[in-house]
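Narrative of activities, Objective 1.

The group set out to show that a structural description can be obtained from nothing but a protein's sequence at a throughput compatible with the screening campaign. Below is one input-output pair from the validation batch, recorded exactly as produced.
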Amino acid sequence: MRVAIVQLCSTDDLSANLAAAEKGIQEAAERGAGFVALPENFAYMRREGGRFPCVQGPEGEILRALRDWASRHRVWLLGGTFPEAIPDAPVEEERVFNTSVMISPEGEEVARYRKIHLFDVTLGPRGEDSYRESTFFAPGSEVVVAPTAFGGVGMSICYDLRFPELYRALVDRDARFIVVPSAFTRETGKDHWEVLLRARAIETQTFVLAPAQCGRHGLDRASHGRSLVIDPWGLVIAQAGDEPAVLVAECPEQDVARVRSRIPVLSNRRLGPGVG
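Output recorded for this entry:
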């Protein structure tokens, strides 16, 4: 399976972001990718303290674009994340879901995942950088594996990466690939990004695709970049830098079974659901 990651530097300009994403998808398809993944907040990177003017309902502009791109380029498309209006929410609810979707080459949505773990942290040498995603987002609650022609794709988003129990749950639902669309900060990214991704690949013995935001998104935010594709043995097989890029890699599906037969951690484990 040839996969592609579109690394972006998104801003608060929806039209420009969509144009950049479409250009990356087209390049990926021209290079033979059958599965293309976009990063977190690919369509809109809000400014700190701002709200989302592009919250999506069932037929929003972002969803229409994703379906169109997938069908036009005949690819499986992981739609990064976008702000989704909470269905049937009370009028006073201002938060949204941070949502990712999997779209088939026919342009049909086959899976939808809402970010479970929200980034509420304090960073900086003196604790001056505070992030409170729970101010703007509501947490999801469902573990989602997208059914595709090349196997189950476990869906996760950015800060989820720090919670290994989610990834074990994805493998228990037969994930062979795992996606982690992200917008890691530069402070956390330099020390944790690759380490965490490789750990999740080794633990789950899956291919891990991590499409990332990169660069500065205005004056108040910057992302780490360095999107990665990692094999089931935990080796990095493709990596981007800190500029927008299209990353293409081969992910032979049989490698998952080969690694799992050599080190059968999933059958050897003694703790967890259904064990003991």
